[in-house]
Design goal:
By secondary structure, the chain is of the alpha+beta class. The protein folds into two domains: about 80 residues, Glutaredoxin, CATH 3.40.30.10; about 180 residues, Glutathione S-transferase Yfyf (Class Pi), Chain A, domain 2 (Up-down Bundle), CATH 1.20.1050. It binds glutathione.
C-alpha cells in the first residue's frame, strides 16, 4: 500500500503525485497543511524530520525527498517506466532533477512565499503566526534548520515580499531555468530525450507554479518551445487531477490574485 503526505501548493509533492499518476499507481492521500504549520506536528516530524512534504510510505517503509521518491517508484514498480532507456538520456534526466533539487526548488520557496503565501500566513491569528515563524522546537528545530538561510529569511519575506533581500535573485534563477528548458527543447521533444520522463515530471510543477501565479507571460511571449512543452504536459490526462483538482479553490484563488499583484514587480526585475 502506498500513502502520500502532501499539500495542494507544494511543488515537490506535485512532482510525486504526477509520477504516481503517470505510473497509474493508486495511493492513499494525507493532506498536510504547511500553511498552518501542520508539518511541524510531532507525529509528522517522526515521518519527515525536516518538516517538509512530500513523504511517501510504502508498506510501512518511509521515504522522503521527492526526487528520490520518484526514482524509488520507478524501481519498485517497473511498469510504465519514467526513466529513459538509454544511459545518455538517463544522465540528461538526472541533470534536470539535480538542478531542481539544488537550484529551482530552493528558489521557488522564495518566489512563492514572497509573491503569494506571505498574505496567507498574515491571516493566521497572532499566536499561530508566531508559532509558524518559530517552527518546531527542541531537537526538531536543529534538523529543520538544515536550511538556515530560509529560516532567517522567512520573516523578512512575510514583511517585505518581493522587496525582501535575495528574492529578486531567486526570480532570476527561475528565469534562467525557463530559458534552459526552452533551449533544451530545441534539440528534443521532451527534456531528456524522445520520451516523457522524470525530467518532465520534475520540471512541470515549477512551470505550473508560475502559471497559477498568472506569470505565464514568461514563456508565452518569448519561449515558444517551452510554451509548446507546457501545453503538451497540460494535455496529459494526469495533469488536471494532479495539479489543479488537488489545489483547494481558495488557495488557487490566492495564487492567482496575489500573483497578479506581484507580476508588475516581477516583470520589472526580469527586465
Ligand atoms: N528536497 C525536498 C524539499 C521539500 C520541500 O521543501 N517541501 C516544501 C513544499 S514544496 C515544504 O514542505 N515546505 C514547508 C516549509 O518550509 O515549512 C524534496 O524534494 O522533497
Amino acid at each position: 500500500m502506498l500513502e502520500l503526505y502532501h499539500h495542494g501548493s507544494s511543488t515537490c509533492a506535485a512532482k510525486v503525485r504526477f509520477a504516481l499518476a503517470e505510473k497509474a499507481l493508486p495511493y492513499e492521500a494525507h493532506y498536510v497543511d504547511i500553511l498552518r504549520g501542520e508539518n511541524f506536528r510531532p507525529e509528522y516530524l517522526k515521518l519527515n524530520p525536516q518538516a517538509v512534504v512530500p513523504t511517501l510510505v510504502h508498506d510501512g517503509e518511509v521515504l522522503v525527498e521527492s526526487t528520490v521518491i520518484c526514482e524509488y517508484l520507478d524501481d519498485a514498480f517497473p511498469d510504465r517506466p519514467l526513466r529513459p532507456a538509454s544511459a545518455r538520456d538517463r544522465a540528461r534526466m538526472r541533470l534536470w532533477t539535480k538542478a531542481v533539487d539544488e537550484s529551482l526548488q530552493p528558489a521557488t520557496k522564495y518566489v512563492t512565499y514572497a509573491s503569494c503565501h506571505r498574505h496567507i500566513l498574515k491571516r493566521l491569528p497572532p499566536d499561530k503566526f508566531e508559532q509558524y515563524m518559530r517552527g518546531p522546537e527542541g531537537e526538531a528545530a536543529i534538523r529543520v534548520a538544515g536550511d538556515p538561510a530560509w529560516v532567517q529569511s522567512k520573516r523578512a519575506i512575510v514583511e517585505l515580499g518581493i522587496a525582501a533581500p535575495g528574492v529578486a535573485e531567486k526570480f532570476r534563477i527561475y528565469d534562467l531555468y525557463l530559458q534552459k528548458m526552452d533551449d533544451a527543447l530545441r534539440a528534443r521533444p521532451w527534456l531528456a530525450g524522445a520520451t516523457f520522463s522524470l525530467a518532465d515530471v520534475s520540471l512541470a510543477p515549477y512551470v505550473n507554479r508560475l502559471d497559477m501565479l498568472g506569470m505565464s507571460e514568461l514563456w508565452t511571449r518569448s519561449r515558444p518551445r517551452l510554451a509548446d512543452w507546457f501545453a503538451r504536459v497540460q494535455a496529459r490526462p494526469t495533469f488536471k487531477p494532479c495539479f489543479r483538482d488537488v489545489c483547494p479553490p481558495d488557495l488557487a484563488h490566492d495564487l492567482a490574485t496575489y500573483g497578479a499583484q506581484s507580476w508588475p514587480e516581477v516583470r520589472r526585475i526580469l527586465g
